[in-house]
């Protein structure tokens, strides 16, 4: 986590985040058409997924590519629990609990793997989950998916759903900052920067990694629930293993390990291509090149770019406090 | 019974040979510059499209000229990748470079659609659907061509690496680029050459499997995932590992889909892969790169 995001107190940040969420809730329905409002809703769900990925990949430095699997598990579990007659809150808690449990089950056997080996194992897991969603027709209705999910009656109501999603994302964002700045966050960063040293000072690395898998999976499951509430139907192609690369791109382009980066990365990846639709068939080609350029010229991602812009603005405002700024930077 | 088994193994080996060619590309680039090029599968697609869409359908080139021209074009393209993607990111975090190759993959797939259209192209190849009888079982002749091509490539690669100055420079660069540079080896040029060679291997795989499937913009996606799995199975960074891993993964898929279920073929193949990694986390030929649990 960067100095600027750290230097705000939790209370200031909470005020900022909640104010931004309320502002978005008030302004977006006024300026966006029904179609773009839906894109905004999808963007918020993607923010949630990338925030989840941030725990394990950004903070923990563990290359997990299974986020789309937890997304799918959360969505299907929520749907099927509702179909079994459970009320919405119970089904939601059940779906998150199941995602977290599967996260733990994946985290435990893959503890010894790292780098590409962990990446492939988690990718293989995502692929297996997708195949099961397609082929286990008795449970999931196969490739046709499940329609007419009751939910809370907000499916299709993009403006009302926007408020629900803004609230969920704001809480998820603040929870991530709170965890990252607390004692757990310190241990997580120790794991990322130097696992051996962390172990030497008594950090239980195995437990920590499993915990990261669990939190990450729970965020993914929550995103799945949000998706069901938004759409009212699900089919396996949404949770395809290939979409996991999109989340990875969002996380890296936004700035790894930065909650702000998750927001910016998801907006750039989800919203901007829609704005570039006038380019028609060229736009995904252009977008692929854009990803390469952002990474080449802004290695710290968009959040790093924004934060260094903020920093240089501050420096300009206080020309006599230059030594303070450098000291502050040295501390960071 | 035995005929069926032989057929399954042969088909598995042939499909696996295509995985091996792509996996070798991963391995060579990884050894040289520690980068996983996730666009490797899209280079397979690009090779097939250049060969079928341009050289065969548009220009009507004879087969051998088609292959050579395609390999030369893709070789230059690969060298361009070293210069355009690897070089600017050589000091960036590993993950950034990986995501850049994912961006490249996305760009290539969509550029292919722009150039050659969304409809898959058909390519009969010289052999068409000719079948041959072997040990009492029947398989497409093209499968044997793929296996022969892999064997030939291995022989050529062995000659290149062991008996030429360029091959020695490539091996030195892969082992320790900094030391190689200090010894006067032009490492930047050698790295470009390694990218070119890896790209040609992928393109050759595309040319070889084109007659067995349609040539489409997304044909590389599944192939690259399986080749990546093969690379891991064999042990990352090991050339014999990439070879054996690809063949083994092809046979696992072929046998799994026949004896258990073709719907769950991915579940079986990747399930086996996870199981292998549980017991031998470094892959078959890999060196230990592990953390204590």
From TrEMBL, chain A:
Q: Which residues form a coiled coil?
A: none
The protein's matches in InterPro entries, at most eight in alphabetical order, are given as: ABC_transp_permease, LivM-like
- Kindly give the membrane topology term recorded for this protein: Multi-pass membrane protein
Instruction: Please name the GO terms that the record assigns under molecular function.
Output: branched-chain amino acid transmembrane transporter activity
- PANTHER family linked to this entry: HIGH-AFFINITY BRANCHED-CHAIN AMINO ACID TRANSPORT SYSTEM PERMEASE, HIGH-AFFINITY BRANCHED-CHAIN AMINO ACID TRANSPORT SYSTEM PERMEASE PROTEIN LIVM
Do you know which Pfam families this protein is assigned to?
Answer: BPD_transp_2
Query: Does the record bear Transmembrane in its keywords?
Result: yes
Instruction: Name the keywords, alphabetized.
Output: Cell membrane, Membrane, Transmembrane, Transmembrane helix
Q: What's the protein name? A: Branched-chain amino acid ABC transporter permease
| Membrane spanning stretches | 12-29, 35-57, 90-108, 115-134, 161-180, 210-234, 246-272, 284-310
Task: Give the species.
Answer: Bradyrhizobium ottawaense
Q: Upper taxonomic classification of the species? A: Bacteria, Pseudomonadati, Pseudomonadota, Alphaproteobacteria, Hyphomicrobiales
Q: Does the keyword Membrane apply?
A: yes
- Intracellular or extracellular location(s): Cell membrane
